[in-house]
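hiii so my PI (J.) wants the whole complex modelled not just the main chain, which honestly fair. so below is everything: two entries, each one labled with what it is. i double checked the lines twice but i was tired so who knows lol
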Amino acid sequence: MKAPSFATLWGRKEATPPPDVEAAALRSDRFRLEREADWKRLEQIVARLESGRLRRVSDDDILALPALYRTAASSLAVARETTLDAATLDYLESLVQRAWFQVYGPRTSALAWFRRFLGGGLSASIRAIWLDILIALAAMIAGTIVGYLLVASDAAWFHALVPAGFGGDRAPGASVEALQKTLSGAGEDGRSGLSVFAAFLFSNNAKVSILAFALGFAFGIPSILLLVQNMALLGAMLWVFNDAGLAVDFIAWLSVHGTTELFAILLAGGAGIHVGRSMAFPGAQSVLAAAAQSGRRAAQVMTGVVLMLMIAALLEGYVRQLVTDTPSRFIIGGTMLAIWLAYFFALRPRDRQGDA
Amino acid sequence: MATLPHIAALQKRQRILVTPEGLSLPLTIASRGSRVGALFLDFVILNVTMALVTGLLIYIGLGVLDLNFGGGFQNTGPLEFLAVLWLILMFAFRYGYFLYFELGPRGATPGKRMLGIRVAARGGAQGTGRLTAEAVIARNLLRDIELFMPLVLIMGAQSGEGGLAGMAAAAWFAIFMAFPFFNRDAMRAGDLIAGTWVVEVPRRKLGSSMSVAESAGGASQVPEADYRFSDAELSVYGEYELQTLERVLRDNQAPAMEAVAEAICTKIGWTNGSGHERAFLEAYYTQLRGRLERDMRFGQRKADKHS
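here's the output for the full assembly
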């Protein structure tokens, strides 16, 4: 496949007579004829790069690409001042533009980007939005307290906060045994269905956190509302279990995956607030530039959030159902929290070395 | 110069990009119509793929069920695996499709590619203009509130499920959907956050030069030397007319060439035998271009016949 296509390429080139530069009447035509071969070669290389088949581009061509691009660019600059041949100008403009996208395109491979991302890029982005994370944390704590207090004052609030069917047996007035059963995990149908459950949880939580981020676009206010609303639900649940004297068990049950999942939602909310805040208060930059800068930073955080939610779903789907005693659950949840905090905030020295 | 409406609309979409070499490159912002078209194509591709994959998994699942009944024992393991695979694949398709293709060397999803547009970094003040992975991620994360949410809510509002709040939410999200109509660069909210825009990628072949067509091979019935135009005869037209003439020659339609040759002859007071229009026009084109380019080198440009 490879060899014949080259053969025909060269064959066709030899078949056309070499341009008769001397015969051209106009100086601009001579200019064009002298450089046409270089332009055509650049066009071929660019077309092959665009099609993504890097193996079909020879080393020589890759080495020649920057030089050919600059030749074409300077040809265009000269042609604009000397030629009125619309065909040449249009062609060169489109060629230089296409080559520009290739020469100055994203040159890091996805793998290299991902390595840099895990090895400091994510932590750096998260540290950069610390203030927004604090705001999100405040919103989440406030939401939990509000939910708890509302249900404490009037149990009817529970049904307003928790969508029907979500809580199952967990409702005010449920017996202690029923509540305990929801915490034990083994009660339902043992091990089966856990992986489906985990996959569903991940998919659902990822959508919610992407929404929390995306809503930040409207100056961050909807993100905060979403956080408060979701955490009010948690507060309501907490009251129900506290009422039954199971608060500690509930927190342990929650902490297995919750330290990872709630942390991820916290980061997603923080990322959304970051975008909204930098658009509302862009500082010295234009609103557009500030939005773009914060958006790119927040996108890194969001990639991290999706990864964290994957881990959270595994913890929730498997570990929580298999580990049933309260102290072990606390240990797992606490360890995860410590790992995340260390990764995000203690990776700093190595990161600085990388920057220097 | 009086501009036609569609030309004016095109000029409105022209932007200048300055390369690191200091060369200004014209860019054309993709029209909103072509972006909607590209999105539609992408959705068709995406949904067809998802439907095929779902169908395949269901087919395999049914096979597994058959096996189970045949064997007489219940083992939900394989079915569970299929369900997990399905959930993960659907998630990956929904978010991964746009990411994967827009991070590729073309910077465009198949739908965009078919319509000749791509994603590019907005230059801005920094002017680096490199499309980064973060930018592509950011612009695609916002697709949810721009497209999926409004659609769901607007459907809900129509049936009156959500009541007044539902309608308010639908109106609020409709704003995101209409966002590209509220700014000059046709950016959607995701483009704004990511610092990107969508531009046209023209792919033009190098057309042959009309002034060397004869000397490069074609046999001319009438020697070019027959046509010699004086400076006065060449000075009646400018660059605009030259480019019109170039287009006429390129199209090579006999009626059009006759009409143009007729018009030029009337203007410069020549009489030209019929049948030689192409030779006449080529000669006039070459000499007019020669004259205009000479003046250009001396810094005098003549935009059209009125200037």
